[in-house]
Write a structure and sequence with these properties.
The protein is of the alpha+beta class and 463 residues long. Helix content is 37%, strand content 17%.
């Protein structure tokens, strides 16, 4: 179920700035061009579009991405005590149980305050210059996590600005200032540095845990040691296009904030874990190198409801992807469409991991939703689709409808989660419960792996 690939509409950062500037465009041709750009943005993010676009040429974003994303895997493979200390030092937390040896995702998170985005700009400029000029000490610091917090903040605030400006464009076409104002009123955005584990990563984590078990001791929870694996054999494996439908990195869902801003993922090929010694039993020095996406796409897969098709997302490697959430759908009265998506996991190579950084922009928790002008058919879309009969459809359409039915069977309809006058906080709780509660459609024990793309509060504990 890989689906066709789709290349995103590309909005340049210079056009984003020009469109949101408080200056009159004097040239008639330029004015028409900018009007066209705005219409393309709304068409792309609207009910007939894919619900996401790429922003290119964002100053500093490529540099910060290149230096931050490799730290994600290194953090994921640290032992719990060292990682806990390091995260605390950089004011980071996590929203997944990092002591779970079977986890397929590790996430490192913090709140990013809108009021602090300007005061951090000078620090970000200094960091960017350090890398651009080839400052070796800066790059060495990155390896040892010394700039983890700064890189996290710099990239996060950079992405927040993109989201705010895009909200401003949407507001111009929708009317009013609802989207941008709702973001500013929230006070914070949620930043997450995410490592999607390879099969080898799981084996490395278990191996390190086994080494911590005292020699000769037998406990009830002792981990069974996996058979010795020659990691070198995976280096030369090529990726086929077969994807794991049963164990994706992340299952189908909508984000329920306003916008989700994502870096294009970085892919790493890992080799044997050198550096696990008798003297340092619970430490692991990750050995990895960046590699292009084996398939040429991001492994982010979207479902286009109007076409009843899935598409793999392709985007320029150093662009930022902007994705619509359900709050934007509601606040825009259906003029924007939330993106139904998942993260696919290739079956091969076994040592391929996926690194990304995500910022979730959401309304204030006390923001209320009114349904008085919202299209009711959007509320009941899933309900209507679930009642469709496929027996008289042509074979090709039957297969498409089976796919649609399967996806919608695990994605709760908006009508089951939303009431008129409901606050964003109540809506987020209802959504989480419908997906992952005891009777939820995805209540399969993978809550902590699947929920991190949603706009939930960051856990206060680090482990």
């Amino acid at each position: 179920m890989a689906g066709d690939a789709t290349e995103l509409y590309e909005l340049t950062y210079s056009d984003l700035l020009l469109f949101t500037a408080n200056e009159v465009v004097e040239s008639a041709d330029e004015s028409q061009r900018m009007e066209y750009v705005g219409r393309m943005v709304m068409e792309t993010l609207g009910p007939n579009g894919p619900g996401l676009l790429a922003v290119t040429g964002v100053p500093g974003a490529a540099t910060f991405r290149r230096n931050l994303l490799p730290l994600s895997r290194k953090l994921a493979l640290l032992n719990n005590e060292d990682r806990k200390k390091l995260l605390k030092e950089h004011d980071l937390g996590s929203d997944v149980p990092l002591k779970n040896l079977e986890r397929v995702v590790s996430s490192f998170a913090k709140n990013l305050e809108y009021d602090k985005r300007f005061e951090s700009s000078s620090s970000c400029e200094r960091n960017q210059l350090g890398v651009v000029r080839g400052d070796e000490s800066f790059e060495a610091d990155c390896v040892f996590f010394k700039n983890l917090g700064d890189l996290f903040n710099c990239l996060g605030y950079c992405m927040m600005e993109v989201g705010l400006r895009l909200a401003q464009i949407c507001d111009k076409f929708i009317g009013g200032h609802e989207l941008q104002q709702s973001l500013l009123e929230s006070g914070t955005a949620k930043g997450r540095l995410i490592h999607y584990h390879s099969t080898i990563d799981t084996e490395i984590i278990k191996e390190a845990a086994n080494r911590r078990v005292k020699k000769g001791s037998k406990t009830k929870n002792q981990i069974k040691r996996n058979e010795k694996t020659d990691y070198k054999q995976f280096r030369s494996e090529t990726c086929d296009e077969e994807l794991s439908d049963s164990t994706p990195w992340q299952q189908w869902h909508h984000d329920y904030g306003v916008f989700t801003i994502l870096t294009v993922p970085m892919f790493l090929l890992s080799s044997n874990c050198k550096g696990v010694t008798e003297e340092s039993e619970d430490s692991c020095v990750p050995c990895d190198q960046e590699t292009p996406s084996p398939s040429g796409h991001t492994y982010l897969q979207i479902f286009h409801p109007n076409k009843d098709q899935t598409f793999m997302v392709k985007a320029p490697p150093e662009s930022l992807i902007v994705q619509v959430g359900e709050a934007a759908d509601l606040l825009s009265m259906g003029k924007l469409r939330a993106t139904l998506h998942r993260v696919c996991r290739p079956l091969k190579p076994n040592n391929l991991s996926r690194e990304t950084f995500v910022v979730f922009l959401q309304p204030a928790w006390n923001k209320t939703f009114s349904l008085s002008h919202y299209p009711l058919e959007h509320l009941h879309l899933n309900d209507q689709r679930s009642r469709l009969c496929t027996k008289d459809l042509p074979k090709g359409e039957k297969e498409s409808d089976k796919l649609s039915q399967m996806i919608r069977s695990i994605v709760p309809s908006l009508s089951s989660r939303l009431r008129d006058g409901m606050t964003f906080a109540d809506f987020s709780r209802a959504t989480t419960n419908q997906y992952y509660g005891s009777n939820g459609l995805q209540s399969n024990g993978q809550l902590n792996e699947l929920i991190l793309e949603l706009c939930i509060p960051i856990l206060s504990t680090l482990e």
